[in-house]
Amino acid sequence: MSKEAQGGKAFGLLKAQQEEKLQAINKELLDDPKYVDVEELESKLESFKQKYMEFDLNDQGEIDMMGLKRMLEKLGVAKTHLELKKMMTEVTGGATENINYRDFLSMMLGKRSAILRLILMFEDKAKDSEVKPSGPPPRKTFSDLP
Fold first, then answer.
1. CA 20, 109, 23 angle in degrees (round to 5)?
2. Which CATH superfamily is domain 8-125 in?
3. Taking the domains of the chain in order of start, what are their residue ranges?
4. What DSSP assignment string belongs to 23-45?
5. Rounded CA gap, 100 and 105, in Å?
6. How much of the chain exceeds pLDDT 70, in percent?
7. 49: Cα within 13 Å, side-chain hemisphere
8. Is the pTM of this model over 0.85?
9. By the 8 A CB rule, do 131 and 106 touch?
10. Which among 49, 77, 99, 106 could bridge 63 via Cys, Cβ 3.0 to 4.6 Å?
11. Per-residue pLDDT averaged across 119-142, rounded?
């Protein structure tokens, strides 16, 4: 189900407000001299914003433990509760039990190789390398059956 197919008018407004908030944070980072050397920063931030919005479903501004669990399950990387707690601590520095957008960005743009960052980067690379078969499927014979 695509994002457009979910919810109604209220959901659309909620998502628009959320995107506006996250875009304001992205703009701050684009103007921040600390990130001036990051290649393709604007497109990376746009990609990170879309990924974050996908899992901050209720626009609370944070991804909680269940949101992180859903994110990883959707990516096919289910984790135990202890592994999730460790990832949360790694991203937030142990300050909170929720990942806010600034924590998410500092993880994705940071030098440390957080587990969550590696998983998300791997997922993006896998999407880029997927080759969809074209044309009709090859004919099968009885000898092809198991």
1. 5
2. EF-hand (1.10.238.10)
3. 8-125
4. HHHHHHHHH-GGGTTSTTHHHHH
5. 9
6. 79
7. 20
8. no
9. no
10. 99
11. 68
